[in-house]
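Writing this down once: the sequence line spells out the residues, with the fold written below as integer tokens. I am pasting one below:
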Amino acid sequence: MRMMSILRPMPAVLLALALLAPVLGCARSSDETPGARRGVLDLSGWAPTRDGPVALAGEWEFYWDRLLAPEDFTAGLAPPSGYMRFPGFWKGQALDGQPLPGEGQATFRLRLAPGTDAGPLAVRIVGVSAAYRLWANGKLVAASGVVGESAATETPHRSLVLARFESDGSPVELVLQVSNHYYGRGGMQNPLRLGLPEQLEKEHIRIWAFAMFFVGSLLVMTVYHFALYFLRKKDASPLYFGFGCLVIIGVYVTLDASDWLVELFLPQADPLVVGKIALICFAVLASVLYRFYRSLYPDEFIVFIQYVCDIRSVVFVCIILTQPGIVIYGAMRWLAVVTIFLNACFLVMLVLCLKHGRDGARILFLGYILLSVTSLSDIYRNLFTFNTMHLLPVGMLAFVLSQALAMAQRFSTAFKSVENLSQALEANNAVLLAEMDERTRLEREIVNVSEEERRRLSHDLHDGLCQQLSGARLRCSALERRSIAEPGVAEEVSDLSLLLEDSVSQAYDLSRGLWPVEHALGDVGPSLAELARRVGQSSGVEVAYREDLGCAPCRNEHLVQFYRIAQEAVANAVKHARPTRIDITLACGPDRRLTLAVRDDGVGRRAARPTGGGLGLRIMAYRARMIGAELSIDDGAAGGTVVSCFLACAADGTRQEGADE
């Protein structure tokens, strides 16, 4: 079951192989034609218009350390040094019991047996190590670089050539001079292909078309992931993935597999420089990929291996930039050995990610396996044998697709998590809003209970204590009118009568403060007027009340809270501002807002006596918030303080009672 879960991303890999099938078809077709034997290739049954291009693979005559021209063969030279299979390299070939070195020069000869149709033919040449010249029936049809017998006389030049020549249906003799004093091995890495010029041109166009599609796709991925990084710089994985795509582009456009696509855009580019670019990109690819993986899985991808990748990249880049070709291609063997070690490290760490259940680890693991297998296959074939089919493009495409799928899965998981969090947040918000509504309802209920309790206490004071005190005062008044013989008692009764009178006044004031008699729905105006009168009498401050209401009486259900806010604001002004005048205003403006304003001409907020807690201000703010009003406390234009409270009136709450609608 575990293996089945790992293989779920396999459709992406199959898609990659399907996309590469047209490109790899040319390489597979070479296996379907008979190979040359002892320098002769029998093409008697081959018709180019019917069978298409044919690979000139098999045993070619091999003349070691001799640069021979067609006329040298007509002069009757000694027999060949042996036969070497094409494509292939002469390094390590046994000659007189001794292996040949990689540097040197040689001539190859192949005779095509009769059977070819008369007309124009062409030979497609790609992947020659250094410099070469090709003759067809004694005519020089292709050359690349300058063939020489030493590094001083040779000019290496890697190129793609379509050598055209005319055929009259008779046997064709091909003579190929190859010199190599730059690369590690001399010979041919890819087979020569013979066919009609238009057929070979179409092959070339197909390869370049796929290469441009592949490179264009990578460029789109690069721009997309760079944009992701710049939009969210906290996550560095899109940045490293974008750089990885650029490095893979650098490797691919300089490979034989893409027919050196770089030459399409830079036809004058130096082949040696282009070759070094390919090697540099390959050398730094591991460092970029490791950073990409470590940004995704920092717990599994340890920093020590990152240092190893960086040291490897720096060392080989320095060798590539400073050393001659022979040294560079000798160092490539060590690069291959280190690459095998790093691939093993990558795979072990990806297995750990699989074990720990990391997001996207299965896809990344499968993609890296394909890249490792194909890259190591090409490295081995290029450094230790020859390569007739390039597998690295398959691995690179599968790898890039796997990384893109893993990133998409990662983003999809992140988006799903955000959606789940959003849904949970919405549910929590709904619960919180319900709780807030319930809390507001309870707060209003508490305020209503408080107001009702104030009303009950006010009535109890008015109907109970006030009446009893009034009765006691009347009894005292009656005692005052009676003659009391005992000295001093009459004066005490008179004083007691005055004291009871003051108590009655204070009890009535307390009763009115708790709940004025006029304090009913629609009667807040008389209550505020009474508040102004009582505060003015008790404090000695001039307190004035003015109202300007569009509806008489006002039917707003929150006028009780307006009264309490005004009561607290007036009390604060008298207590702290040391005013000489306080104005209370209740008005309803054209914007259908009920406005309560309490203005004083006192010392202002900053100069007022400091208080210990500011409970009154918080109570006013709480009452305003409870009824949905807006409370502001500002400095007056001419000094003092202005406390304002604004409340939007509903039409039904501000209509004049009995008015026409």
